[in-house]
Amino acid sequence: MTTLAFGFVLIGVLIALVLLGMQIAYALFGVAFVGIWMIRDNIDLAFRMLELTAYSGIADYLFATIPLFVLMGLLVSVSNVGRDTFEVAEDLLRRMICGLGVATVAANTIFAAVTGVSIASAAVFTRVAVPEMKRHGYRPSFSAGTVAGSSVLGMLIPPSLLLIIYGVLAEVSIGGMFIAGIIPGLMLAGGFVAMLISVTILFPGFVLEDPEGTRQRRLDRAQESMPLNVMVSKLIPIILLVILVLGGLYTGFFTPTEAGGVGAFGALVVALSRRSLNRKKLWQVMKQTGVISVSILLLLVAASFYSRMLAIAGLPNAIAGLVTESGFGPLGFLFFYALIILLMGMILDSTSILLIMVPIAAPIAQGMGIDLMHFGIVTVIAVEIGLLTPPFGISVFTVHNTLNDPSVSVEQIFGATLPFIAVMLAVLVIVALVPSTVTLFL
């Protein structure tokens, strides 16, 4: 068996191990170690490369962004900032058709700008938005689907953990990736709003239990309004955090790591000022930060080891040659790659897909002249769609488990997310065809 064929076999083994339930980090370490050992017929080399990777894989100062942004997101979550953001959005949009659905998207968009984790958004807004939407006559399944669908904004609107992981794997600027995600993120949010309004007008029975009754209640509520001082007090914390983190980052005043530190401190101040952080909650936040951060950093070390094995096997260069010989141009390769990501999203989680595919595909894309930041945003949008597609659909399962309502099945929530998936596919095609949507501010 040639080295190239053996490399493909190793990729197949890796995917099989993950599907059988092995944790992705252990699968990456195991496959990479055995691969280097067998390809070079030298177990000592495999151990030396493992030692070198473990030491140098996350030694860069840049990796401090991960625990800092995780800490900021968790502090924001315990501060009830998400609930307040939704309440203000609900009040401002109460006259609009499908106003609560649009409010959920708007609140998720703002919340995503300070958390960067879709699962956190899904959990927060399931508790906040779904009961309120049900109370105003929205179908429970549609309410849950709206939360699940809009929660994926957390993976694209910066700061985003997926953008950080991609930046590390592809060796591109994380700050640049954050800037690249702005327009596509806003396109997604705008697409979701347009879709919600259109679906409510065209298929009101899909959205509402009693369309006419809900319409009348919406008109009756048009006279109600939250006092301006209450609205401002609810919005000030989230606005200040967004200005502090993203403003400092985009103006170049902060590096991504410094922005994470400033953001975490700002979130701590917000949590303390709201008296939502006692000793017990602080300990839980710190413990969760450690667990999540160590898990991600371990994955990145494993991915670095896996990348070295692929390089030894000569796989990226060989696949690049095959792609070139097949007649695929850059655009053809981009769409073929996105299709593979979409299919993998049905069976694997987002991080696993990035760790498996980016070390292989990024060098090929760069060799074909594709901008790696453009390539990264296409990758993340495609991966995001996997958060909503069965059978894995982690955002859907998060909403279902958090909701804990026997009358709302997982299948119903998957059905309610289909319009969101359609919008995401449309945005994916537009971003792939128009690179300037990503590179405009770079």
UniProtKB/TrEMBL annotation:
The chain crosses the membrane at residues 6-39, 60-82, 102-130, 142-168, 174-207, 228-253, 259-277, 289-314, 334-360, 372-393, 413-434. GO terms for molecular function: transmembrane transporter activity. Residues 11-436 form the TRAP C4-dicarboxylate transport system permease DctM subunit domain. It holds the Pfam family DctM. Keywords: Cell inner membrane, Cell membrane, Membrane, Transmembrane, Transmembrane helix, Transport. It comes from the Bacteria. Coiled coil: none annotated. Its main location: membrane. GO terms for cellular component: plasma membrane. It is a multi-pass membrane protein. InterPro entries: DctM, TRAP_DctM. NCBIfam families: dctM. The complex comprises the extracytoplasmic solute receptor protein and the two transmembrane proteins. Part of the tripartite ATP-independent periplasmic (TRAP) transport system. Belongs to the TRAP transporter large permease family. This is TRAP transporter large permease protein. The gene is siaT_3.
